[in-house]
Design a protein that fits this description.
about 475 residues; mainly alpha; two-stranded antiparallel ribbon; about 55% helix
Length: about 475
């Protein structure tokens, strides 16, 4: 139990003293004891542990550590990306870097492809998602493929993999095209209505609505109509969930310092709001799943993920709902983030924008027509500059800048001892910009790197672990 836990015990003791004065002497003794214990814990955690007692002292660390915020300047759980990038350019790390965040919480970040390979492939089952990450996500996503481990993960992956085959994805192209056309037409309509201030739209909201519809159809065979009905309950629930007010960030920090189950179950307004939104989304997923189960005999002709899962016969209703929640929540939000970064990149680089527009207008049909003309699969797959641009967006602006793993046994990384319980930060934001892996122009946004001979899929990266936007995993 951390210092916050002891302080909580002390406050509880004060409360009971007010209710039951007969306990006054014992209660005040408990308050003093808890206060002293909390103070000693804080001194150890903030001052003594990082300097003298860390079992990871053999791993290089960032300089200039603050006694309260660690190596960052934030009182929230945030990674000091800019500082780490500067440090990595100036000093070799021998594959691992140790740094501290608020409360001097200790993290280790792999900085070489060898360390990444061990964590993600050769020793993947020695590093699992920690409770501080899994517990909040399971509240929203359930136990889908994203959060299960070991044999359970292997089973999920094996039975869902057919939904991600090239044949299945290619069959979804018309769906992607149709929803994209719908979004552009609706944006044009909004701009022409004169109701938009300064002729400006919020691309984030449009991106989330479009991707929610696309993931709904591709994942569950259901059109949620978020584009045409932005006020629908599903879109509004997700909009509420991603808002992340300061109160939620502070609760998350408290959860990291103690345990998320303590803070996420507090009777706060934000926690109630999250529970209500999750219940509405899960209810919508349940209704769709039950419809799919009722027509199970017809799912052989369907290409959505849930139909593939049903055909495997390995998932019950609750687990199908968990899979649907995973693909709806994690899938639509990350895709929407990638689309927003793509728009941002085009605004920052007008030359790239012009070249991409010329290629698209040359090879794809316009959308100001009345018919139902579709872009052919071959036309889409032959847009070389569009493919290079998308690859560079995903590399340069990863939708998820970091994720976390925890060592579940005593182990080693690149020959260095890693004790059980060590928190490992995998950061695409850092790895995708390492000059050792991408060359001296790693920090330059340049789709051309994916157009060089033989570089269409790698961008000239040194190895498969240079690009962590989609992580990696054991075969």
């Amino acid at each position: 139990m951390g210092a916050l836990g002891y302080l909580f015990l002390g406050l509880t003791a004060v409360y009971f003293r007010r209710e039951y004065p007969i306990w006054e002497t014992k209660i005040w003794t408990s308050v003093v004891f808890c206060g002293v214990l909390a103070f000693c814990t804080m001194v150890y955690r903030l001052f003594l542990y990082p300097e003298f007692f860390s079992p990871l002292k053999h791993i290089k660390t960032l300089p200039s550590r603050n006694w309260l915020t660690g190596n960052s300047n934030s009182f929230l759980v945030e990674t000091p990306y800019a500082l780490i990038k500067t440090w990595l350019k100036e000093f070799p790390t021998e594959g691992l870097l140790r740094y501290y965040i608020v409360g001097n919480l200790e993290w280790v970040m792999p900085t070489s492809s060898e360390a990444l390979k061990e964590i993600l492939v050769t020793k993947a089952y020695e590093f699992e998602k920690p409770e501080i990450m899994k517990y909040p996500l399971q509240k929203s996503l359930g136990r889908g493929i994203l959060l299960v481990e070991g044999d359970e993960h292997r089973m999920h992956r094996k039975n869902l993999l057919p939904a991600f085959s090239y044949r299945h994805i290619k069959n979804l192209y018309p769906l992607f095209w149709a929803k994209s056309v719908d979004m552009v037409r609706l944006i044009e309509k909004e701009l022409n209505s004169g109701s938009v201030e300064h002729n400006t739209i919020r691309i984030g909201d449009w991106a989330r609505r479009a991707t929610l519809d696309i993931i709904g159809l591709a994942g569950m065979g259901c059109d949620f109509e978020a584009l045409t009905r932005p006020g629908n309950i599903l879109h509004q629930s997700y909009k509420t969930l991603i808002s992340q007010p300061l109160s939620e960030k502070l609760l998350f920090l408290m959860g990291v310092l103690t345990h998320p189950r303590y803070t996420m179950n507090l009777p706060t307004a934000r926690n109630r709001e999250i529970r209500e939104c999750n219940a509405r989304i899960r209810g919508a997923a349940r209704a769709v799943i039950r419809q799919r189960i009722a027509k199970k005999q017809d799912t052989g002709r369907d290409i959505d993920i849930i139909s593939v899962a049903l055909q495997s016969g390995m998932f019950d209703e609750e687990n199908l709902i968990d899979q649907a929640m995973t693909f709806l929540g994690a899938g639509h939000d990350t895709t929407a983030a990638a689309l927003q970064w793509a728009i941002y990149a085009l605004c920052k680089h007008p030359g790239i924008q012009k070249r991409l527009r010329d290629e698209v207008r040359t090879h794809l049909p316009g959308i100001s027509f009345t018919g139902e003309k579709q872009a052919s699969v071959s036309a889409l797959e032959n847009l070389r500059y569009l493919s290079a641009f998308c690859n560079e967006v995903l590399r340069f602006y990863p939708a998820i800048p970091k994720t976390v793993r925890e060592a579940v046994v005593d182990t080693t990384l690149v020959g260095k001892f890693i004790p059980k319980g060590t928190l490992i930060v995998l950061s695409p934001e850092i790895t995708n910009h390492l000059t050792e892996l991408w060359g001296p122009d790693a920090d330059k946004f340049d789709p051309e790197r994916f157009l060089k001979p033989g570089k269409a899929h790698t961008g000239g990266a040194a190895n498969n672990f240079a690009n962590l936007s989609f992580l990696h995993g054991p075969p």
